[in-house]
Amino acid sequence: MLNTIIHKFVKLCYEKEVSEIVVGDASEIRENNDKNAKIKENYTSSVCPRCGSKGKRITRGSFYCPKCNQIMNADVVGCLNIAKKCKA
Fold it and tell me: Is residue 3 part of a domain?
């Protein structure tokens, strides 16, 4: 599965003429797989990662925070909130 994802990612980057890909140290991903599996994704894209307020999806891919008055990509919002859960 991981090789398929990497293959698709590299192919997409090639098609988009991406000249540089920066990757962090992923050596511990397999070692900490149990920890990663325990992080729940529920509601991660419905809370603003900036202020913590409940926001709402305005389209399938867009998130709106009324407190910050910001529109953000919903997948990025979910990612940032999952990252916060990892650190907690």
Answer: no
DSSP codes joined into one string, 9-46:
HHHHHHHTT---------TTTTTTHHHHHT---TTTTS
- Domain that residue 68 falls in: 43-88
Residue type, 1: M
pLDDT per position as a tens digit, 24-51: 555 555 554 554 445 677 788 899 999 9
Tell which wins on pLDDT, 51 or 20: 51
Domain count, the chain: 1
The answer to whether position 61 is within a domain reads yes
Supply the pTM of this predicted model. 0.57
Enclosing H/E stretch for 73:
strand 70-73
Q: Is 49 among the domain residues?
A: yes
